[in-house]
Amino acid sequence: MPHPLELYRNKPFYWPDAAKGFKYLCRALLAAPYGPRMRITLRALTDEDIEAHNAGEDEHTVRWLNGAPGTAETTAAHFDSLADNARAERGKRGFGVCLDDRLAGYVDCDPDVTDGLEPGDVNISYAVHPWARGHGVAGEAVRLILEYMRDNRIGIRAVVRVDPDNVASVRVAEKSGFIYVHDFTSGTDKHPDGTPAMLRLYVHDMEAPSRPT
Ligand SMILES: CC(C)(COP(=O)(O)OP(=O)(O)OC[C@H]1O[C@@H](n2cnc3c(N)ncnc32)[C@H](O)[C@@H]1OP(=O)(O)O)[C@@H](O)C(=O)NCCC(=O)NCCS
């Protein structure tokens, strides 16, 4: 029987393990201001959220999500249409994502998106305000919107359409249990130079758990 110290000494050093440990240590340090357990919730957006919502947009939000920064008028109109849809129980349902009660992002599900999709597919979009990124907020927001879709029987499959260069969003889809299907040329989304965007399609069966087990 080898001495325990001998076993330890003979254990090969494995860089991926060390990198993973370092990653979790960094994340714990970054999350420290939000307490050991962050509380992420979804709630309806009102006119009082317009300023914080618009302030939470940056060049990444514009590039990967909305194409142009929101103004007080466009955001108010957007929130009004979300309220109408919620009342009518149809179309795009969107929510503010709160981190410990502070507005930290946005998530929606939209059964009316058809670009690259099949009947029964419901598109999910999300954005997190720059100050709140890197703490798992988007992953948790996606889990909550999937729960909402299940509870309200919205769609057969949830889908995420994402530019492969948007690595953070690709990772959010993958860690939320979405499965890569294929790349396709979008009929609606364009690159800044006007050429059609090539998007990755990720799908999530609504019966499947929202996180890989
Ligand atoms: C995409 C976005 C919502 C992610 O928000 P977030 O709260 O930071 O996301 P999470 O913390 O839940 O997860 C991000 C993951 O991407 C990873 N990631 C972030 N930047 C990365 C990079 N440059 N390279 C590799 N991985 C990266 C993180 O490590 C994390 O993965 P992990 O949990 O395995 O460590 C946010 O960056 C954003 O708002 N972007 C602009 C809008 C947008 O792109 N929306 C999606 C359109 S499809």
UniProtKB/TrEMBL annotation:
<feature type="domain" description="N-acetyltransferase">
    <location>
        <begin position="40"/>
        <end position="202"/>
    </location>
</feature>
<dbReference type="InterPro" id="IPR016181">
    <property type="entry name" value="Acyl_CoA_acyltransferase"/>
</dbReference>
<protein>
    <recommendedName>
        <fullName>N-acetyltransferase domain-containing protein</fullName>
    </recommendedName>
</protein>
<dbReference type="Pfam" id="PF13302">
    <property type="entry name" value="Acetyltransf_3"/>
</dbReference>
<dbReference type="InterPro" id="IPR000182">
    <property type="entry name" value="GNAT_dom"/>
</dbReference>
<dbReference type="InterPro" id="IPR051531">
    <property type="entry name" value="N-acetyltransferase"/>
</dbReference>
